[in-house]
Amino acid sequence: MGKDKLRRFAEMETFSNVIQPSLDEVLNKDYCLKGKWYEEFNRKAPLVLELACGKGEFTVAGALKDASKNYIGIDIKGNRMHRGAKFCLENNLTHARFLRTRIDFITSFFAPDEVDEIFIVFPDPQPQKPRARKRLTSMMFIERYKQILKKQGVIHLKTDNKGFFDFTLQVIEAQGFELIVASDDIYGKPKNDLIPEIVYETKTHYEKLFLKEGKTMCYLRFKVHE
Fold it and tell me: What is the dihedral of CA 7, 57, 60, 18, to 10 degrees?
């Protein structure tokens, strides 16, 4: 492990906006903040999660754009989220947190009806068919999301992978979920008022690379509760 990565990990240990539970704290048990995130943020406000957040670009953008909500970026790779966490600390974005954990354990951290929105932004598309269940919009994960989302809660997906986009649409149709909006080319088609501004305005590091390669960006939003 390089010295710079070690430095970032050491810094992360001192960040007041980063939560890094041990495996023992979440494996087959509830984490101490489950159902009590309002205590962590010192206020009750809509709670927005960014899953597989990487550098936390959507978490940061959301916190900058709308201070009326609480934001949590979630990823297992602390080296990546260091940048977003440090930016939020330096800019006093007290309504943003970063949680280092596996998404598999998400129900250990959030209580029923605790989460308002979930953003899944450029996740690993897991293109190999045998790995389909590991896609973050597979039913294995959606069953977890259903446990923590409010009745009117929504899931957002932004991806450059058309196969992943189509797979998610198939899941939505097969399960009878409510599809709110879907676009297979958000920048190449007229602006859609049903697509949040943050989706148009916020381009992650990987998205910028994909756009340079000429790829189109897909987006959809849906509900999993009736």
Answer: -40
Residue 124 among the catalytic residues: yes
Residue 226: both structure tokens together: 């009736």
Q: Residue 36 domain-assigned?
A: no
Tell me how far apart the alpha carbons of residues 157 and 136 are, in angstroms, rounded to a whole number: 10
pLDDT for residue 225 is more than 80: yes
Query: Which position among 104, 124, 166, 185 bears the catalytic label?
Result: 124
155/61 Cα distance (integer angstroms): 17
117 is a domain residue: yes
- d(CA 92, CA 216) in angstroms, rounded, equals 35
16 within a domain of the structure (yes/no): no
The domain that holds 52 is classified in CATH as: 3.40.50.150
pTM (2 d.p.): 0.95
**In terms of Cα–Cα distance, which of 38, 41, 88 is closest to 62?**
88
Q: Which domain holds residue 185?
A: 43-223
* 27 belongs to a structural domain: no
- Condensed to tens digits (0 to 9), the pLDDT of residues 2-48 reads 678 888 888 989 999 999 999 999 999 999 999 999 999 999 999 99
Torsion angles phi and psi, residue 213, rounded to 5: -80, 0
Separation CA 220–CA 128 (nearest Å):
22
Number of domains in the chain: 1
Whether residue 86 contacts residue 56, with contact meaning beta carbons closer than 8 Å, is answered with no
The whole-angstrom separation of Cα 47 and Cα 183 is 25
pLDDT value at residue 1: 57
